[in-house]
Amino acid sequence: MSKKRVLSGIQPSGRLHIGNLVGALQNWVRLQDQYECYYFIADWHALTTRYDDTSRIKEFIKDVLVNCLAAGLDPEKATVFLQSHVLEHAELHVLLSMITPLGWLERVPTYKEKQEQITDKDLNTYGFLGYPLLQSADILVYRADYVPVGVDQVPHLEITREICRRFNNFYGETFPEPEALLTEFPKVPGTDGRKMSKSYNNCIFLSDSPQEVEHKIKTMMTDPQRIKRTDKGDPEKSPVYHLHKIFSSREEQDRIVEGCVTAGIGCIDCKKVLIKNLFAVLEPIWERRRYFMERPDTLEDIISAGSKKAGEISSETMKQVRQAMNLDGLK
Questions:
Q1: What is the pTM of this model?
Q2: Could you give the number of structural domains in the chain?
Q3: What range defines the domain where residue 271 resides?
Q4: In sequence order, what are the beta bridge partners of 212?
Q5: What Å distances lie between residue 22 and 10, 126, 187, 282, 291, CA to CA?
Q6: Which CATH number characterizes residue 265's domain?
Q7: pLDDT per residue over 260-296, tens digit each?
């Protein structure tokens, strides 16, 4: 039996950090052995909020690709490609825009949320409003069976399912209705305790040096009640402990909790354990990053081959779409 197809993408809107690693890349690596996986670098999507400055987009595209490979993605198992190299994404986006009610786009949860959060630029553009529609085209053009999402992201996939049903209702069964592949995404705190985000300037980047990572961990905030070494603390109030939940063993976590609530260990000791365990995860990634950064031709070959394969799949889909919509010429 052929494997079910999975589709997912990531924006090159900045350097990737450990939140991207545990929230997406590690999951992608696991899925590549179970499914037919298509993973793309969503450079068009990056323009929806960063349209005014594209000076670093090539740098960020390379960073995403290198980190995907360094995290363990195998181009022999998963197809890795660049969105803008497969023009069928844009063609399907245009055709879907003809049938999608504006109200559907305006009610997407992140539409108003991002407008409220991002105040330093004008987001009253079609590209920003139409982001979910381009996302739908990304998914449907590969006739994906599954899209890996967290529970809180299921509503974002629902608009794709609605558009799929609407298209099939108008023009006949053309697309399979994609389903959510529910995945547990741990919440990764940044160095200031808020969610790790490039916009908060609180990230531990995969491209950081060992010295930079160690400095960021050592200067992280902890439980604000632990002012002196002898003060007892509450580990749940410390973002350092929440990183332990991701990178440390159960036994180590238990020791950290016991030492924190009894003041048996200090925050520096707690951070040293985290640094050790984080380095154990990052050191193989750093090594593979160095390998690929020194081989730009290899990176180009991977993107070229992946985009070609993605183009073959999406081209076949678009033939069916044009035929269904009677846009396939006079014959």
A1: 0.93
A2: 2
A3: 208-290
A4: none
A5: 13, 32, 9, 12, 22
A6: 1.10.240.10
A7: 999 899 999 999 999 999 999 999 999 999 999 999 9
